[in-house]
Amino acid sequence: MPQPWPARPAGWPVKRRLEPGGAMTIGIWILGDQLNGEQAALAGLNPDQARVLLVESSSVLHQRAYHRQKLVLVWSAMRHFAAELQEQGWRVDQPETESFSAAVRGWIEAHGIRELRVMEPADRGFRAAIERLQLPVSLVWVPSNAFLWSRSDFAEWASGYKQLRLELFYRESRRRFGVLMEGSGKAAQPLGGQWNFDADNRKPPPKGLKGPQPLWFEPDAITQAVIAKVRSLDERRQADGHSALPGDLEPFRWAVTRAQALEVLEHFIATRLAGFGPYQDAMVTGEPTLWHALLSPYLNLGLLHPLEVIRRLEHAGLEQQVPLAGLEGVIRQILGWREYTHGLYQWFGPDYPALNHFEADQPLPASFEQLGGSGLRCLDTVFAELRSSGYAHHIQRLMVLANYGLIAGLNPQALTAWFHRMFIDGHDWVMQTNVIGMGVFADGGRLASKPYAASGNYIKRMSS
Questions:
Q1: 183's torsion region: left (phi>0), alpha (psi -120 to 50) or beta?
Q2: CA–CA distance, 262 with 269 (Å, rounded to integer)
Q3: CA gap 264, 276 in Å, rounded
Q4: CA distance 24 to 18
Q5: Residue 24 pairs with which residues in a beta bridge?
Q6: Are strands 181-182 and 189-190 parallel, antiparallel or unpaired?
């Protein structure tokens, strides 16, 4: 059963009721990556006070040809979330449209909306797009609660440093949230006497290494309907002279509800957490997931909250005496890297995505769009896994795909857009810092201390 979210921080709005006879003129627009019942725009209201809107618009394909399974995941998760809100008493509308503007304006007029609340989007472009609509309502931006660090808190931390390195941020996060710490206050020290166990988590894979099977789900009727919709949209696109959408449409096996996402978390704890550490950087042909958690799509859509995942991992890991190196390693990916990259995305601002330190200008090879046919085994292996599910783990992304982009001089903006379109967990805030900063050093060192260029020897050593 779904578990409650962490307690609201001090200062969050409390639910209140309208005075008798009060008109219901408040609208709440929930974006496709804000799918949780505790999100900030909902948090201060009761179901009888407002009407909720989720817009399923195919206009997103005018800008980006997304992986087929990414479209299915987002739209199916939105439909399931809308149904859950309705069960809780919310009045929910989810129009299918080819125009965000027409759908939102029509909804505002039809229901007499006078105030529209939107939780601050994680991706900067969404806010700009909404503001460009110039909607005939009072538009209220509600600060996001989807991350542990607020934008103002991160800015306060960042302003004290010349170099914003992950390790400094991660240590502060451990202290701030009391994760894997001994003692309290300024005297608190990291559990095990050290902050970072990377050296224990980079073992090359032995021949024949196999990880446990991941937890997958069969599509229900809602997801099957979305699959049919994506197939129809793709056929129409091709009939109009556009290229086919990338990636395989089926089998689709991702979780699409909070309850299923929680099952994935528990399955990871039960079958994969204890073995996560040693081979988290390994690449094994035929083993695309190994011991990886597969939680990032659900965190990035809001189905899971980072703090509840961190607390659950910490509690279960210590209770089960999971090796500290592995436990710290997986928590660092969420508490450290995920929060750090989101904070940097907001801190660096709108000019960051255009950076091109090395003036790289080579177009993406056709194999990137085709997801295969490069003639390089390492690339084609990752392409095949990406084509199948929209997923590849962090070392495949950094040390194969981005490494190739860096060495080949691929245009960083084109490569970043490709990562966003192809990956099941891709969003602007994820991919800009990960690709432009960490991946191809296009920011000249604002994020990473050095370019992550690796030779074939590294790939050979870390793969089998």
A1: left
A2: 11
A3: 15
A4: 9
A5: none
A6: antiparallel
Query: Measured in whole angstroms, how far is the alpha carbon of residue 359 from the centre of its chain?
Result: 28
Q: What is the pLDDT of residues 140-195, one digit of tens each?
A: 999 999 999 999 999 999 999 988 999 999 999 999 999 999 988 888 999 999 99
3-state secondary structure of 189: strand
Asked if 158 and 129 touch (Cβ cutoff 8 Å), the reply is no
For residue 411, give the nearest of 419, 400, 422 by alpha carbon. Answer: 419
Q: What is the mean pLDDT of residues 72-89?
A: 98
For 461, other C-beta atoms within 10 Å of its C-beta total 14
For the segment 126-130, the average pLDDT, to the nearest whole number, is 94
Nearest Cα to Cα of residue 33 among 378, 430, 308, 452:
430
Give me 409's structure tokens: 């001089």
Average pLDDT along the chain: 93
Q: What would the pLDDT profile of 246-299 be if each residue is shown by its tens digit?
A: 999 999 999 999 999 999 999 999 999 999 999 999 999 999 999 999 999 999
Measured CA to CA, the distance from residue 167 to residue 284 in angstroms comes to 28
